[in-house]
User: Fold these one by one.
Assistant:
Number 1:
Amino acid sequence: MLARLFPRALAVVLFTMAAAAVSAAPAAAPSLRLYTLDCGHLSLPDMGMFDDGGSSDGRPGEMAVPCFLIRHPQGDLLWDTGLGDRLAAHPGGVVNAFGIRESVETPLLAQLAALGVKPDKVRYVAFSHLHADHTGNANLFVKSTWLLAKAELDAGLATPAPIGVDPALFSAYRQARVETFDLDHDVFGDGSVRILRAPGHTAGHSVLLLKLAKGGAVILSGDLYHSRANYEQSRVPPINFSRAETLASFDRVAHLLQNLRARLIIQHDPGDFAALPKPPAYLD
Ligand SMILES: [Zn+2]
């Protein structure tokens, strides 16, 4: 009798132990989460540089500069790295060569630390494009894999550098592991996070498409649009690499927004930024 019962008793004990181990472990990796980090602010004396149709000539404006931490069960992705943390040492900000005041209130590293994220552990870093307000902290992520649109990297390394690009800000790509791509790029291979070609602002500009479990499809604009008004009016900045490619990218993203019923987040728009949860809150 004992001999017959023992295997069953052992099985019960083992099952109970396994169940205890599962319940004692941290909660299962959550589904996709989107954290919006505050990576700076721009005060611009003349918004005319964002509309070649003249609607904004001579008008001052303000812009948010977010970074986005995307937490996926297979690792973290940082989308854009904002203005540099070095600016946090200048409380009133610094005026750049274009007369634009750049400021950073809380360093990106401190914001990541508050979420328990060490820069060395961020698996991927990617950029909508290589302008200085998106690459300011890039060199902090030398241990990450850099996901770079080949056209954007090639253009960013040209001599002389394109206006708005400072290659010194992303020089760590030479030491980092780099994956380049010519077309769209599926970051984790499951379709939940995709870097999509949307050139025009720069040669290899991209937007990021996320599929959130509760929030649905979300598109992070990069600088395809700089404000809600520019999105609604299809305004093209005179500083863009290609007007024709910009309009084609507007067309692509408009179709995506419609077909996927996606939410568009215009990264530089202060209203869009203000509407997003502040860490530790997130979209999922
Ligand atoms: Zn920008």
Number 2:
Amino acid sequence: MVLPIVAYGDPVLRKKAKDITKDYPNFTELLDNMFETMYNAHGVGLAAPQIGLLIRLFIVDAEPFAEDDEISEEEAAVLKTLKKPFINPEIIEETGEEWAFNEGCLSIPDIREDVFRKETIKIRYYDINFNEHVETYSGLAARVIQHEYDHIEGILFTDKLSSLKKRLIKGKLNNISSGKIRVDYRMRFPLAKKGR
Ligand SMILES: [Zn+2]
């Protein structure tokens, strides 16, 4: 089932999410719905707060980035297989130089901006069977994970922009919150007037 994606301005996107336990209700169904919702919106990642759940969970499918001509074969191979949920994740370490990448977000349609983040991350998380993993990712793979990870910490990519950039997009962000925007996937707008 395709779930509505929560738009910028909803307080659920601003809270730190909580860990879950093995017995989280209807978990398989939740994951199926999240993947369906992400693919329907042509996203490469989706975090639980974006569907209104304050739990430490996000999914990624970075395969579309593997098509990028500018990346190495090794990086493309990683991106192709980076398709999974991250449960109760914790970024343990972020290292390397900061680099800019033009990011977007399914909760903030039609806005794309360059965001600086560190090159490499080490992350601990649980898989669907609640087995623990510690993995290291770099480049675009790290980027997708860093963006989604921020969501479960209540952080959005627009927070990382310069104050000038923030001022320039303020009007657009207000329009998104109030639903004055055309989007080709299901969304829930916090300030939209009823009956529109
Ligand atoms: Zn996002």
Number 3:
Amino acid sequence: MKLTLRVWRQKNADAPGAMSTYEVDGISQDMSFLEMLDTLNEELILAGDDPVAFDHDCREGICGACSLVINGDAHGPERTTTCQLHMRSFEDGDTIDIEPWRASAFPVVKDLVVDRSAFDRIIQAGGYISAPTGTAPEAHATPVPKPDADFAFEHAECIGCGACVAACPNGSAMLFTSAKINHLNVLPQGAPERETRVLDMVGQMDSEGFGGCTLTGECATACPKGIPLPSISAMNKEWLRATRKVHR
Ligand code: FES
């Protein structure tokens, strides 16, 4: 395949950015999107040019590091992570626009790399359980009803990639935050911090400059792990419950 790539290039957070156009040839349909970018970068390096900076780690769809807006869609045309997107989703001769996540809470570091440490700070605010250290407890010592276990697993699938924020017209992080709160709040292990978790994590989310949710639903559509939109209403219920309990 021969492709025209229009790639966002930006030296650093303070420098102005612009789209640069590159031609790549000999791209196999079996390549992943990131392998296609590797090919571009090999050519840029051989020509003595600065390679395109982009985030990646596992390349297996589990770490959440990869983060590209491709032709206007977070992670591109398939409902998957950028690293699991393959070139068979494109046609020979296509022009592909590649941009970083666009959100004021995710400032550009360089080219296609953005700073997602706001997510880390939301997790640090309450995305954990307090457990005494020691040997691992017997797995069946704490019974969990099957619907609660399924609910927890569904929300624990969030890999924190930030596609929800990039897809949302408000730059809202409510789908991410709700997934992280819900998967712990529904379990007995998460009960001791149930109220402080939701209040602290939502407070941190608000202080990071993410927008509010207007139930557009783009976040759930873009999420590569299928975190459902009602996750946000479940978080709102948790927040109201915690607020009432703290004020009582
Ligand atoms: S590189 Fe890890 S999910 Fe894409």
Number 4:
Amino acid sequence: MWEERFGESVYVPLADRAFADVLKKVDLTPDQVDHLIVTGLHARAVGSFTRRAGVRADAVVDNLAKTVGNTGTAHFGLLLADTLDRAEAGQTIVVVVLADGATAVALRTTEALPARRAALSVAAQVTGGRDTLRYADFLNWRGRLTTEPPRRPDPDAYAAPPAGRNTDWKYGFTGSRCEDCGTRHLPPARVCRSCGAVDHMTPERLADTYGTVATFTIDRLAFTPSPPLVAVVVDIDGGGRFKCELTDVDPDDVAIGDRVEMTFRKVNTARGIHNYFWKARPVRAAGSTKGQEA
Ligand SMILES: [Zn+2]
């Protein structure tokens, strides 16, 4: 960040150059850009460059500062996803990121865009956010308020080698399906537990697949950043059963048959290592009702 004015004097010329370079490569002028996304932690430089970029006023993408804040590294992806929710086929999107220098990327949407949009838009997720979180919980999750932890052993710190070996499972919730008999395995397996076939598996990404609560329990002693722990067994649509924590839910409202979706969340922090994995949460998409296929 440095001092505000100094940062601006360094960042803005870099952004100017990156923006001019990328437009030259794709043979466009600033007024032909349909959506301009500018993001970075240096708000003053971001604002300054946005104003001087020379694009049409309606092409400047709202940076969501007033509703979401600044999510840091994730912010350019968030703004791009939000833009793709609204963009039409054949439009030009330019992303300028100010972070340890300036990066500009030019993208062109295709006819495939409308069919590939996410079921739940970024705007719908923003307006659908819960505002019931207690400030004390927020401070606790941020490590600024210390509360008495559960009287249980501390959770184990996660290690890099298993994360490295199971990257697709850990980060993509990718299971496997037997090519011989069709049985789905969660976590992914090399040997089919139904027919015994070895290494006849097709990876299956299940992060966007819904499931149904088969059974659950509410544990008031187990470790979770958000007690009490609601532990659920989820039957994933199309096969596969998975045990995990149910989050973003009032424990009194949980019922067998509830429809849930998977969400990538912080599980714990142990010895300074943050561990993220998949939890379930109630389905948010419009039109999905309890106990029905959505
Ligand atoms: Zn099989």
